[in-house]
Amino acid sequence: MRRIETDIVVVGAGPAGSMTAKWAAKGGADVLMIEKRQEIGSPVRCAEGISKHWVEEVGITVDPKWIAREVRGAKIVSPSGHTFLVDEKNAGNEVGWVVDRVFFDKALAADAARAGTEILLKTSATSLIREDGKIAGVMAQSYGEPVEIRAKCVVGADGYESQVGRWAGIDTSLKADDIDTCYQYRLTGIDYDPDYCEFTLGSAAPGGYVWVFPKNEDTANVGIGVQLSKVKHPADPKMYLDKFIAKNPGLKKGQPLEAVAGAVSICAPLDSVSTDNLILVGDAARMIDPITGGGISISCIAGMCAGKVLAKGVQANDLSMNTLQEYETAWRDRLENKQWRNWMAKEKLTTLSDETLDKIVHTFSKYGVDKLSVQGLLAVIKEHHPELVKEFEEFI
Fold this sequence. Notes:
Elements: E1 2-11, H1 15-26, E2 31-34, E3 49-51, E4 67-70, E5 73-77, E6 83-87, H2 88-91, E7 96-99, H3 101-114, E8 118-120, E9 123-131, E10 134-142, E11 145-156, H4 164-168, E12 179-188, E13 196-201, E14 209-216, E15 219-227, H5 236-246, H6 249-252, E16 255-265, E17 274-275, E18 278-280, H7 296-316, H8 321-349, H9 354-367, H10 374-384
């Protein structure tokens, strides 16, 4: 059996994995990143939208090749059609791009490779290696052949369906209220405003929303997320999306180029994403914005935190929780409060009627929002509809 020895093995070559690998390698660690698919970035399983404000922080060089469309903002649409326009006036550089994930993910992996990371495609982790009660790497299948990968630390960056966390005994289980099940088309030949992403709330997408993310002048990712607790049949998300498209003349005329389905977590932060000699990052660690279901920026920021700590641990020859606690502290200091706040807001938002959502969106449109954030939005609601936000007082 083939045997590989390395400092860090990263399982999964999405944004979280590549960013972790890059920063660990930059810090001097010997890093191997494995990816079960034969192509990084494909198939695409998200709406592909990102904001601009975090890109420089994590060391990503902007490349027009992976920018499908630069948007001017977003339209938040209520069930009856009230629209609140979000642009750079109230969102700043939270406004951003719709990317091409096939090119974007490859660019991040290439950055990791340039930093010194070795990459193995068509390589799936099958179990953890334990030696004297200690995690010591992973067993894997690489191009159909078994391989033993010995490592000082394992990074689970294997996405929503992460097995690495379960193998390590980290509780990543989710309630039905904390899962959105999603379905998306890429529609071409449509008539819409290609300068704005669009989000439609309410009963059109129970517990979630319908999105339209521009790819070019007549093509967009048109998808839906429906809270799993509100799904009666596995085909419901597609059914809701098809009904929405059929009622929209500009979208109805479009033709599908692809269709994808999946799920995202919309939960509160996990109590722990680490154990001795193993960490989780990104979707595998449930690092998702519970309001939007977006996780690219969170994954990259957490990946940078992880990579820096792993490099330090390699230098100190200590990748126990004595060292890895610094990762827990770093990502929580940077991201946890917002994830908690947005989860609490999500819990309230998913209970609101179409009538109440109409009222809220109309309020935003009429009075405006100085700074776009869940906190800023709640402040506006408190001023005009205080009865809706009593439980969020401490966050406003």
